Amino acid sequence: MRIVMAGASGLIGTSMSASFRDAGHHVVTLVRRDAASADEVRWDPAAGRLDPQALAGADAVVNLSGAGIGDRPWTRKRVDELFSSRLGPTRTLARAMRQLDSPPATFISQSGAGYYGDAGNTVLREGAPNGSGTLARICKEWEEAAHEVPDGVRVVAPRTGVVLSRKGGALGRLLPLIRLGVGGPLGNGRQYWPWVTLPDVAAAFLFLLDSQVSGPVNLCAPEEADVNALVAAMAQALHRPAALRVPAPVLRLVMGGLAEELLLASQRMEPAVLLEAGFGWRHPALEQAAQWVAGKDQDARGVSFQEGSR
Known about the structure:
Blueprint: E1 2-6, H1 11-22, E2 26-31, E3 40-42, E4 60-63, H2 76-98, E5 106-109, E6 111-112, E7 123-124, H3 134-146, E8 154-160, E9 162-164, H4 174-179, E10 195-197, H5 198-210, E11 215-219, H6 227-237, H7 248-255, H8 257-263, E12 268-269, H9 272-277, E13 280-281, H10 286-293, E14 303-304
Parallel strand pairs: 1-2, 1-4, 2-3, 4-5, 5-8, 6-8, 7-12, 8-11, 9-10
Antiparallel strand pairs: 13-14
Helix pairs in contact: 1-5, 2-3, 6-10, 7-8
């Protein structure tokens, strides 16, 4: 399969492009600098410039474009950048596909768990309504932009949860503190974080490429966990205490809206579509994920998880 990828240089994109190639697919990456090889194509998504021929002959387009949600404080300028860095590239890709007589059959365009806003303890399947807040608006407009592709293109919008990685990612700042024994839960810790390991993100995209699934897909592990459980599992795997809780008022004071929406919001997400389609997680349980993050896991690639096994 020939796959064109946007946003392949980040944490998720680097892992995913390697997984695609390992699976035997031909990956072409879109870059904003001069192309360094035949497998790179230069584009300028901010200006809406992409030669449609870059997508000609591709079987699928994978879009991971977007500035990091938690990388910087949420000033008005930064929030504008969070929108534009997602909507601009997505619309540029959709416009290029509309200019082809035979566009790629599949468009997988990233979205996020933030689509649901702060939903408390409500179980969120893919049909749950759009929430409120900045992240919910970003995800809604991001998904709408993906549907600007021509009729007949299969559009998949993975609403990806908190990605667990051995370095970087959502736990990039918390893990070093836990390793030192000075980390702990954020807020009261009862907010649900829909988590998934980095290898399972890549595996899920591979699965979605070969499936007939379309529309929104909750991309998270089947075992739900609140922040208390998540931090405790990481601390146990690293053999460290995790008792130094950071109160919500402190997070709000230091981080403002970023803390409210990214750290304190609760999304009790269920991967109903992936479960129904028969996807097999490598790390379906939190204990397995924590052992993998700590570098102590036994390879459990392709473990299946059925609804009744919870």
